[in-house]
Amino acid sequence: MNAIREQMDKPLVVGIASFVVGAILGLIALGWWLFPVKWTNAAPEQLRPEFQEIYLRLAIDSYTLRQDPVAAQQRISEVGPSATQILEKIAANPGLQTPDSVQTFLSLAQGAPIETGTPTPEAAGGNSLTRTLLPFMCLITFLLAGGLVAVFLLRNRISGFKLPIPRAQTEEVERQVQFPEYIPMEDEPPMAQFMTTYNLGNDLFDDSFSVDSQSGEFLGECGVGISETVGVGDPKKVTAFEVWLFDKNDIQTVTQVLMSKHAFYDETTRQRLTAKGEPVLGEPGREMILETAALRLLARVVDMSYGSGGLPSESFFDRLTLEMTVWSKP
Fold first, then answer.
1. Is there a cis peptide before residue 99, judged by omega within 30 degrees of 0?
2. Domain map of the chain by residue range?
């Protein structure tokens, strides 16, 4: 016992003993008994010789039917270096295989060149079938695409969709509306006068204009944009616009909310929009005055109309033309 204890005090002996015990537990107990290795998707080269012979006999049968030397040589190479020896064994006892097919396989295993011939009837038939079906497939795809476009256009027509009006057409409408004579609010003429038009379908409507002095100095900006919509779907149904004035010499932007009749007389909607600015009922000729420290803006509704559809009457704008005139305050 003392001799064993003396040996256990030596690091080399402890290391060797630990290695032997670990190898026994890991290799025999775990590797072979508890968690044995299970092979899946093994290559033909990893099979036992008798199974490699079965594999090559099946490959010879396939070659007899299809006459594909490329595939035959690939299957020979998958068996590995022992393929030639196994084929010689098969040639000595061909069984159900024809001697010619076995000899061809043996020649390919010994490095004979591959002779490519004309395509097999199956391949030629497949190519012919593809060429026949391709035009019909293209026609079906075209018809499906046309049907989807027709359904899309019909659905938009039913829901009252209107395509956005191009900017060039909007500018033409603005040119047709003459700038009226401004009402002098000060002794001086206005610094700037702008006009903008919204049409149903312009979902990104947000016009802004720079206000500059006669010397070209930037003084501020004014503009109008979408504030609130009603309903769902496209295009957006605008029920209120924000008219705003920014002064570089002021700390805040002054805003008034131009609302449709339905939104203005709906208590909940009006109270919600009041947080954005003073509510104003939208109607032709309506004027709004916005003032900052150094600027005064007169915004006037030149023309407007309501849209129609499944929403409440006079709830959203179909068109709005707004004139904005800016003065410099003394």
1. no
2. 44-109, 136-165, 167-328
Measure the CA–CA gap between 59 and 102, rounded to whole angstroms: 10
Angle between helices 83-92 and 69-79 (to 10 degrees): 110
Crossing angle for the helix pair 69-79 and 49-66, nearest 10 degrees? 180
Residue 274 one-letter amino acid: T
Please state the length of the chain: 330
In angstroms, the Cα distances linking 312 to 230, 231, 240 are 10, 10, 14
pLDDT tens, residue order, the chain (330 aa)? 556 666 666 667 667 777 777 777 666 666 666 666 666 767 787 778 888 788 888 888 787 777 777 887 788 888 778 878 887 888 787 777 777 777 777 777 776 655 544 444 444 444 455 566 667 777 788 788 777 767 666 654 443 343 444 445 445 544 544 444 444 454 678 889 999 999 999 999 999 999 998 888 999 999 999 999 998 888 999 999 999 999 988 878 999 999 999 999 999 999 999 999 999 999 999 999 999 989 999 999 999 999 988 898 999 999 999 999 999 887
Here the tokens at position 247 are 């002064």
What gap in Å lies between CA 225 and CA 244, rounded to an integer?
A: 9
Which of 228, 219, 330 has the alpha carbon at shortest distance from 277?
A: 228
> 3-class SS at 199?
strand
Global pTM?
Answer: 0.46
- The residues with which 212 forms a beta bridge, in sequence order, are 218
Tell me the two tokens of residue 85.
Answer: 């020896």
How many other C-beta atoms are found inside a 10 Å radius of the C-beta of residue 315? 21
